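Incident log, entry 3
Record: Protein yippee-like (107 residues)
Problem: checksum mismatch between cached and fresh output.
Input:
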Amino acid sequence: MGLLFVEVLPRDATGGADVLQCRRCRVDAASVGAILSRDFQGRIGRTYLFNRVVNITLGPNENRNFRTGLHTVNDISCICCQEILGWRYVSYNDIFSSASNDHCLIF
Ligand SMILES: [Zn+2]
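Fresh output:
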């Protein structure tokens, strides 16, 4: 295995309360400032829509049925421990007017 480059997100004065991390290995995944919406619901609870996430790998494209219809998504996994963190929309029917194809949901 080659070198693994991990991006460390900037912290606020409190030391990191504004950074979300992988629940297993604690590598940085997203900044609270990158949250576009807190109004999404996943299979296991509340999810957040981000416009930028870091330290992830993408799974294959899959078609999934959501309450809003059929969407093509990729699972996103932690680059360090491969824990599944959420999913990324590959395409959708413009239901999420504030989202683009690069936006990710993390639970
Ligand atoms: Zn991890």
